[in-house]
User: Fold these one by one.
Assistant:
Number 1:
Amino acid sequence: MNLASAGVWMIVALLLCTPALGDGGDEGMELNDGEMMSNPSLRVLVVNSYHPGWLLEEDLLSGIVEGLHREGFAATLDYELLTFWMDTKVNYTSPEEIEARGYVAIGMIEELKPDIVFVNNDNALEYVAIAYLQAHPEEDLPFIFAGTYIDPSVYSPIGDLDHPNRTITGTLERIPYEGIFGEALKVFPNATRILLISDASPSSVNSKKEFQEWYSVHENESDLEVLDFVQTNSFEEWKSAVLEYQNGTDLLGIQAYQDIRDENGELVPPAEVARWTIGYSSIPEVGMISSNVQDGMLIGVGVSYWETGIYGGIIGGEVLKGRSPRQFPIVDPGFVQLSFNLERAAMLNLTIPVCSLVRADEVFG
């Protein structure tokens, strides 16, 4: 954990130690271990924007469970854990389909009446949490969100990041560009150029805008020149961009590639995109999502979704004890995960500095 993350946990500790002030059976559904319980006292619903196996949301989910445990709420003993996967990355991708999946989740809430709802990523926030609160202005069902790239204050139930208007709070997701560039230069101190590339999914488009804002401020002080930020959903265009820059860049900064499609419009498995990139590129990769390293890429510097989940779970535990979500400001908690892939380092005939390996959260290969 870096110093920034440690500072965030100190802020959380202060918030949690403050006395309470008062309030100022469908597809994609899982009952998990709660099915084994005879008479659970609480119901916790977690709505995920994507599909089972999506590693980032799996990490958020396990982190939420861990955070609740640290607050004294044990799954299968103190609450029934319900999950719903909207599956809006693969099977339900049109605006109409995404909205329909949101209606299914809202129907679950109305039928099962959970005590608290966690929503992960932008679609679950907009089409479930915000839609529910707008449709039920008289209710105070608490929502905790995570993984949003946009400014959620645009939604009327939130309005203010410091003091949300309704019973909802959560965390912002912001890619740690300063940390990414810094770690890349620790491993490659002579690097001067980097090409950024990602798919063109809505979340990736939002993150590119965020990067452009960050880079406009830090460009003159950065030791890495950003040659371009390529965004495409075409596998052929992805291949062309990677090959074009083989002799023109020192580093390849890779963000998301989960929405890359072939010439027939079919989704290309992310692992296949990663395998092709590793097999045909001799440029070291710096993954802007830490899990990229598990797909074989060299370096990963990104948000720690597990720690972010713990953060939300702890807040959720406080809410279950009687505090209002409105007492917790909406922030970027700043948890960063550093990972390396030694097998890829060997392919590139590179040696990762010992100090970097010591600081790593995970090392593969």
Number 2:
Amino acid sequence: MKVDNETGTIVASEYAVAAKEAGLELATWSLERSGWLNTGGDAFYASVSSVINNDGDMYTVLDALAQKVGVRYMFSDWAATVTYYASCFGL
């Protein structure tokens, strides 16, 4: 994923779009392995650090991965975040 500079929102990267078009199911690893999001989230969030500024943005990132990128499987170091999100959206 990356930031659309015109809208300032998180969107699927060209690589993610190509992978989906090739029929691949996308998975992520280590959703919450980073530092605090109010400090940019370390290297794990480098591609979207310009649009995250608080720990609640974890859900913004998670929603973008699920809805815009099309991730089907997600590993998180803290299962509560992805479980809560999946429960809210009936996933």
Number 3:
Amino acid sequence: MYKPWPEMILDAPFQVLPGKPFSVYLLVKDADLYPVVIHSLKLRLQDSQGNVVEQEHTLNVSCETNLFHQSFSLSREGLRGDIRLWGWITAENARGKAVRFLCHNFPGLEKRPLEIRLLEHALPHPQGWFAGEMHCHSEFSSDPVEFGAPLRLMQETANSVGLDFVLCTDHSYDFNYRRDRFLEFTNADVNFAEYQKQAYALNSERPDFPTLVPGEEVSCGNSRGENVHLLVFGHEKFLPGLGDGGRRGFNNHPDLSLTEVLNRLNGVPTFAAHPKAKIGWLERKIFRRGEWREEDVVSPSLRGLQFWNGNLGADYRDGKAFWIQQLLQGRKILPIAANDAHGDFNQNIGVKLPLISLYQARSHVFGKVRTMVPSPTKSIADLRTAFLGESCVCTDGPFVNLTFENSRVKVEASSSGDFGSLQSVVIYGGKTGAQEEVLCKEWRFNEATMGLDETLPAPVFDYIRVEAVTRNGNRALSSALFIS
């Protein structure tokens, strides 16, 4: 797998809203070790109707920093709908060897174009609701197997795809190491403070852009002393967690237990990251990784379970069932949707077998699934308060919600032409101590229906929740509405 070249990647937002910037990014990682000159970039964009736009940029840019990036503005003119973008990069290393490649220079991977959807409508979300990426990684997550994106690019991409805020959740075990030399120790508190400083500076510089919330993905110990990951929503001081970082050999015990971490946080929302993700035998033995269990989620300080982790696979199915189990025990815990993206604005590339092979997919793309909360503003303080509440919506497109007033329940659902008309809206109810939920009410639509707004008598349940699915396969689900 080793090659004496930096990683060179072309990336772009997976979707772009009307009126938002349409750009493609060139990123070069580790050019401080392997300097290169990027001579040119040739772009070819084609939409589903066959319309083609081409651009060519003569650059001759010397890259000698650890993480170089440059943005290139694109025009929507003459293009609509689903776009395929091919980008050919020509580069030369310090020995005078020149290469030309499509989109990236990772070995052993099929060369694919980027895929971008140019949306034609605003997102179908009501005023007063704010959408965010709840699990993602910036360049402050840098280790032997992965690295994230510059905070500036994350904020710009969030703006293009339609987010209002970004919870950055860089690994606790990476703050102890230099970003440019991930095996060399550094002062974690200083590194974390620099991370906060950069995020706050970008928020001040561009107040109309999505809010960056500098949080953390803390490795901590579950009830069995195994490493699990906890997402923290913007806290003041660094929380140590080197247990499963892979840089202490077999000294893989958690630094802090989950209880100890929660006790250090006062009024800061936290969420269980991918609580039912499948963990292989090697991960369990080498990194002492485990999963979240019943006894780990009893604290009211834990506000949510991030079981929707970019895709609808087994971890979603099992995680959602785990969430419903908690609701049926009377726990007012939120569902959280996020992507665990390390940069990965258009596709995710990662290690399949260490030192042997890589993989590429579109299952953990930045901003593709998001969590929405009602809030007065998108300030960190207001968002923090919102996540301490009991209302949120998880979605990859449509919107759905329940409210309770005067012994009646209001049901709202909406979609747009970009995500397809509504196919179904279903309300489920649960009683404390029951083994499973009950289907309370279901709407199925034969005609093109973009919205639902109905009021019903309150069902005789301790809580109700609602899900919506569109004809394009997009979906949304609400938090549980407990009826007291």
